[in-house]
């Protein structure tokens, strides 16, 4: 008898959810499997700024045939991750290269544009069925199945529930009790037509971080070089926040941003004078790494920002979410390859979901920590910079950033997976021998 389809419920239809659906279909599509994506929004909106997809994640997208489409909407960074420059003079501190390999290269894209690409592939490949206006409430383990409840009163069954519902994840809150911690930083974000920027831009690359004490500005091209994305980050005392939230929908007047940049280099001031009249503004919270991402005997797993929410200072969050999708899909394929015929639930699922956690949790937790540290580094603060001159701080920054980005972009994820897979196979074989004795 043919086995029943293995049912995967993905909570959240953003970047993490859609890439995970594509990876699962790619690696598990030879098995009877049903993938459903549940998104609480009514539809996909053309909002949000730019995101960086590092070459570590780009190679995974190319492995499933999505990379070329991603490149087509990306801004050209010409092999430069970022050039770091002084806030007050725009003089170069150091340039970090992106480890590109031909078409397998970093991609600076708009979030909305990338979601359109992913949605197109999901629909064309019939990778998953999308369900909109589905606000997750809770999941219950009924033994042979997981029962998922939504705010509209409906419920669905699944064999595996993946929490891909972002930084304010409801799935996470059901299993993890922790609090957001204010980092002491606020950000302003917006996009500017490149046609307006071109007459005033006199640097060889648009991919720049302007670094100063207590502040930094990030710029890079998106939308096939038609748009410049900017993010300005500033130290701010908590008692001055007012009702500011951790939300992309909050805005402010452009004049407020310009006042913050009054001591910047001429290029900094001229670029931000072109900012939208109402740039986005929000505070940056941080969350500590958690020890477990899988729950309910491996039937629930957290991914992306729901698993490892990180501050944005290394432009690594989207890439880490894509790595999650790749590894959980390979881990699930291992389980499905071994699932007894006709058996919808197998106790081995927990072990293979634990493989996903073994591969991803230490690396993502380290990226969380180095992103946190980079926030201090870019503001010329932190233990290593105490008592140092600006020039000494710039030297520390150049060396530290190079080492961190080389590791993030260069880690061999497949080799890491194979090492941990061998460990799990050893545990399974040991358990089998013990049972037979």
TrEMBL record:
One Gene Ontology biological process: secondary metabolite biosynthetic process
One MF term in the entry's GO annotations: FAD binding
Pfam families tied to this protein: FAD_binding_3 (PF01494)
Keyword Oxidoreductase belongs to the record: yes
Name recorded for this polypeptide: Salicylate hydroxylase
Claim: Oxidoreductase is one of the keywords in the record: yes
Domain FAD-binding span(s) in chain numbering: 7-337
InterPro entries: FAD-bd (IPR002938), FAD/NAD-bd_sf (IPR036188), FAD_monoxygenase (IPR051104)
Keywords attached to this entry: FAD, Flavoprotein, Oxidoreductase
Native source species: Cladorrhinum samala
